[in-house]
Amino acid sequence: MKPKKAESITIMFPFLNDWGTVGSLVALAVGTVKKYTDNWEVVIVNDGSLKSNRDALEMIVGLLNESGRRIKIVTHEKNRGYGGALRSGFAAATKDLIFYTDCDAQYDPRELSLLLPKMNPETGLVNGYKIKRSDPFHRVIAGRVYHYLVAAAFNLPVRDTDCDFRLIRRAVFRKVKLFENTGTICVELVDKINHFGFKIYEVPVHHFWRTSGKSQFFNFRRLSATAGNLFKLWWKLRVRKDFQT
Description:
- GO terms for molecular function: undecaprenyl-phosphate 4-deoxy-4-formamido-L-arabinose transferase activity.
- The protein is of the alpha/beta class.
- Helices cover 37% and strands 19% of the residues.
- It has a single domain (9-239), classed as Spore Coat Polysaccharide Biosynthesis Protein SpsA, Chain A.
- The protein has a 7-stranded mixed β-sheet, sandwiched between helices.
- The longest helix is centred in the middle third of the chain and has 18 residues, at 137-154.
């Protein structure tokens, strides 16, 4: 059966030295999105990668772009953090829907096809959740603790806060303004979309062992910084009720 046609879609990838996987992920995402719409684009945010990785990215995109200039790179000369990369990607997107996931190949872009049926005019976010987390044991435990803490503190209506496999209606950003520069942007994003009354749906997706790069969020060196950022965000959103700055 032919898939139902979707609205226009931006495919967005934050990129940090993931040259080994970005080409295949972009190809899989484009192959999937073509089944649903002819109106698509790809935005790759190069967040201060090493020059050799930046050169590799440009070469890969040049090859993939031979059939049409729909793939563009947004370059940060210096690393701005995961939140900074997502904010640049959202700002560069021009289509009705924005699908994003990471470049480390822990998610299958073809499962975008699972998110699209849940997207309707009232929906602001379709959030994936991991069927089973494929990470070392300490990261699985850290991820569960992190989710339960932020879900309770912010009353988040999702079961997997750090599943970076999301489909977002770009129109939500007329109301939702994002300011976080770290991985805590995921909490900010979900909380603000919920606060402004947009519907949120969840879809189970597969999670795979990392084949490229390393985690930029859950490592012991960043735990104290993450805790501090979360407290500041909680104070702003829950105590001050400030959803605009």
